[in-house]
Amino acid sequence: MATINALDFTVKIDDLQQAKFVEKTYSDKLSSNQVLLEIDQFSFTSNNITYGVVGEKMNYWKFFPTRSGYGIIPAWGFANVVISNHPDVKVGQRFYGYYPMSTHLLVTINNVSSKGFVDNTEYRQTLPLVYNFYTNTEQDPAFTPGTEELISLFRPLFVTSFLIDDHLAEQNFCGATQIIITSASSKTAQALAGLLAYRKKENALNWNLLGLTSRKNIEFVKQYGWYDKVISYDSITQLNANEKSVLVDFTGNHNLQFQLQTLLKDNLVYNCLVGFVDWQNLKGENSLPKKGEVFFAPLYATKQQQAWGFAKFQQKVGIAWQQFINSIQSTISIKKYVGSQELEQLYSDMLNGRIDPKYGNIVRLNR
């Protein structure tokens, strides 16, 4: 019986600054319906930091359990089958999905189709299906080898943005005349801004789209032409406080929330809380006038899949995805990180806000 050496990148649940690699081994003799995947590449964005920040509250630590007190931050990417004990999954097949920041993942397969499979490992059975499904790249109409890295970077974030855009449209934008997006340089915010700008143009909608970002990222955010105005965080008073406003907040910054709520007051008609990019400033001295509403994408996705049917849901996402990817493909520079040391450095830089948003970060631990 041979063994396969593997690595997991783990972080301390109560102190994300502490991270370490843990070695483990897998046997080449698998139980019935088990498959061992070798993770080829995954993306690393500020969204992964959000997974870590809310890991306990949103059950993200439950997807890939490790030793007590530590967790493995999930990531989206691609993996190849290296050992299979399932008759319908073949060695060499490639799957896109939700992976640990690791070199390998052992899955127990259920519900196999030509499109992919569901990981039915016991500890994942109560978790949202959207995270447990692995897509066979051979049957994925959105997949091309040349866009793999963009798929890793944007596709999971894009679905969240698609759902926020749909939710706002369903609510008729709460009657707002301006929509404000924070952390406008982040990948999820980019996708949302692209979708909203397209919807506004196609339907001749009468509201302004505003992006908030750090001063150093203003020109980067402006280049896409999606926003009617881009404002730095230190110039928030430029916002028109008399306009009814929707706020989509990806920062999680308590003081920024206080500033915006105090400025906009009752004209803040919907405060949508999505991310925690600024995870080190989640608390502040001043109590917030209002809490805001957390947008949990998997719950809304389930609602719309039931309303539209799964096939129509996939079709709608697919059409919007193709429009978006065509618009940004030439503007993204891919930056690759190879091996454990480079992942550690990337993690530290991302955690502490030292990342240039013009790059899309792709990690390959196995190279």
Question: How is this structure best summarized?
Answer:
It contains nine helices and 17 strands.
Topology (SSEs and partners):
Blueprint: E1 3-12, E2 15-27, E3 34-43, H1 46-53, E4 70-71, E5 74-84, E6 94-100, E7 104-113, E8 116-119, H2 129-132, E9 133-136, H3 148-170, E10 178-181, H4 187-203, E11 208-213, H5 218-222, E12 229-232, E13 245-249, H6 254-264, E14 268-273, E15 293-294, H7 297-308, H8 310-328, E16 333-338, H9 339-351, E17 359-364
Parallel strand pairs: 10-11, 10-13, 11-12, 13-14, 14-15, 16-17
Antiparallel strand pairs: 1-2, 1-4, 3-5, 3-7, 3-17, 5-6, 6-9, 7-8, 8-9
Can you walk through the features of this model?
With 367 residues, this protein is of the alpha/beta class. The chain folds into two domains: 3-140 and 332-364, Quinone Oxidoreductase, Chain A, domain 1 (Alpha-Beta Complex); 157-298, Rossmann fold (3-Layer(aba) Sandwich), CATH 3.40.50. It is built from nine helices and 17 strands. It has helices at 46-53, 129-132, 148-170, 187-203, 218-222, 254-264, 297-308, 310-328, 339-351, and strands at 3-12, 15-27, 34-43, 70-71, 74-84, 94-100, 104-113, 116-119, 133-136, 178-181, 208-213, 229-232, 245-249, 268-273, 293-294, 333-338, 359-364. Strands 3-5-6-9-8-7 form a six-stranded antiparallel barrel. Strands 12-11-10-13-14-15 form a six-stranded parallel beta sheet, with helices on both faces. Strands 2-1-4 form a three-stranded antiparallel beta sheet. Helix 3 (148-170) crosses helix 4, helix 3 (148-170) packs across helix 8 (310-328) and helix 7 (297-308) crosses helix 8. The longest helix has 23 residues, at 148-170. It is globular, with a radius of gyration of 21 Å.
